[in-house]
Amino acid sequence: MIIIKSAREIDLIKKSSKILIETFKLVDSLIEPGIETITIDREVEKFIRSKNAKPAFKGYRNYPASACISVDDHVVHGIPSKSKLVNGQIVGIDIGVELNHYFSDAAKTYKIGKISRDKETLLKVTEESLHKGIDAAKAGNRLSDISHAIQSHVEDAGFSVVRDLVGHGVGRDLHEDPQIPNYGKPNKGPLLKEGMVFAIEPMVNMGGYRVAFEDDQWTVRTADGLPSAHFEHTIAITKTSAEILTIGR
Ligand code: MF3
Ligand code: CO
Question: I want to staple 37 with a disulfide (CB 3.0 to 4.6 A). Which of 80, 99, 124, 178 is the partner?
């Protein structure tokens, strides 16, 4: 069942999102060649707790960290470690915040130093596809219109959309109904309504769409070893459009 949030609840999700926006500003300032990914995670956790909020991922199904940090061919759910970021890498950072029992979830893929042209294009197309999906998230459309908008944009650029992981409803929990695939035919699934809150999160591979798990049981990597990118926002469907809650205005 897709929960319709009241204006008061959306306001609470906005307050959670505001902390998430500030957390990403902190990551923007920290991330550079040579930093250990565990350092980013520690600073993220410290910052979120300093706002009297909780890192939503820590302890979720025993996930051990506050941020997921996924380098190059790691698609999502990479576990922070002592390995250092290196010039030329792309690094997906995914963070969730829980404040007063309300959740927000967002991700972006960073460039470390100078990256290849192909990686530049991958990042650009993935972020664009997220915004195509968000544009399709309006009252009166159906759920799969979001999926279709993302897939079309990605495949027109010659990249592929990961099938095995999806976006989701968010708000009272980190993961709520519905699941939001990043691929599919248009005009299928539930009608979108004012008050629905979603985390839309395309994961886009430079090569094939297939993925595999690393030995740590968390890290999802591309099957062909080519790079992957991930962007995510928490959005609320309003009367006229979608409001992006995890972008500062
Ligand atoms: N943003 C991620 C998602 O929605 C959350 C990571 S799951 C966790 O799938 F276990 F790492 F928290
Ligand atoms: Co998510």
Answer: 80
Atom of ligand 1 nearest to the CA of 168: 4
> Is 0.85 topped by the overall pTM?
yes
Q: What dotted CATH number matches 7-244? A: 3.90.230.10
Q: Tens digit of pLDDT for each residue in 153-207?
A: 999 999 999 999 999 999 999 999 999 999 999 999 999 999 999 999 999 999 9
The domain limits of the chain are 7-244
Alpha-carbon gap, residue 34 to 37, rounded angstroms: 9
Q: Which atom of ligand 1 is nearest to the CA of 57?
A: 12
- Ligand 1 atom index nearest CA of 165: 9
Is there an atom of ligand 1 within 6 Å of 77 CB? yes
CA distances from 50 to 23, 27, 43, 107, 234 (A): 11, 15, 10, 21, 22
Our answer on whether the CB atom of 203 is closer than 6 Å to any ligand 1 atom is: no
